[in-house]
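Worked problem 6 (solution included).
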Amino acid sequence: MNMIVPILVAVVSLGVGVALGLAARRRDRARGRSIAVLEAGVANVINLLNNRLSAIGAFAGLVERGPLSARDREALDNISAETLGAAEIVRDLVHLVKPPGKSDGAAHLPALLSSVVHARRLNLAEGNIHTSLDVQPPVSMVAGRPADLKNLFQRLLRFAEVRLQNAPEPRTVTWTARSIGASVIVVQLDTGPALPAKAARDLNYFRPSDPGFAGHLELAMAQRVAESCGAGLRVEPGPGGGAEVTVTLIPGRLLEAPRPRPRPSPPGAQRGRVLVADDDAANRQALTQLLRAHGHEVVTVADGVEALDHLLRDHFDAVVVDLQMPRLGGRGVYEEVQKKTPELARRFVFVTGDDVRAASHEFLQHVPQPTVRKPYEIVDLLAAVNEVSGAT
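Solution. The predicted structure is:
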């Protein structure tokens, strides 16, 4: 019994050490080999988790809800909500191991902020929290992947919600976005209690939650997300009390021009023959049922070698491939097809749960084909297949 506590402490310390080591891998070249091994291990775990979540979400989406009882529909809704919640935890893990730096992609900031507030409207109403959003022109596009930026502002809004739970009324949160020089600044101001004196210095996700600092973990995670997508975050007392959080973003006009996509998106729904290559049996089954339910003929294989064999012999209107597969992964299949049949390579859709591995990230950033990340929204998968179907 006396040995259990030290062992548990050692295990927890090891887990924290792994995460911290990964976050600092670019600053510690002397340990490059061991860090690369750890990164690969974490990437594999994230890939496995995303596969499971993707299958659960897809199967839940396949259920015909018309004849179901209210209780069964509620159970399905809960499954979907829990799947999305678990996916958010996985995304947080990605941000914890991703080094700070410039983020790829761009997002329309006014629409993104509005969507975040709209998604939390019921929670805000329940807490009698009033929100206001003031986006001053010419604020529009900002640098960063939309999913990362949405995660960032969701975290900040939840930080304000936690702080306002027991605050006297009126309870308000205001967002103001404006351009200043070569930056876009978003300021969140709440009417919650005064910040602790060391708030700005104590934003460490790995520290135990501070009972005297309401919303500590949400704000610490928001800072981590901001760092991983190239944004700045500062917190300080508001001018009339409460908390003022300032996020600094890169405006879209400073981004490099996007790479041209060599094909137009075909109008209307396309029906055709689709090859699905995924080594995960549950995901193969889910993808097959989803695509067949929307009128596609589907052929499935379990790895890249089988996929190449079918692609060299048969005709397909779209090719849905997992990035990480045994024998030959999705990238290898794509590159082989690109050499021999470039027009077929333009019909590829990459579906992946690997969002950490540097090589995968670099490839997906530059390949001119759509990518659907697990766990995916069904409409995103169908839109991607529709986009490439019949591309020439």
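Discussion: Residues 32-62 form the longest helix (31 residues).
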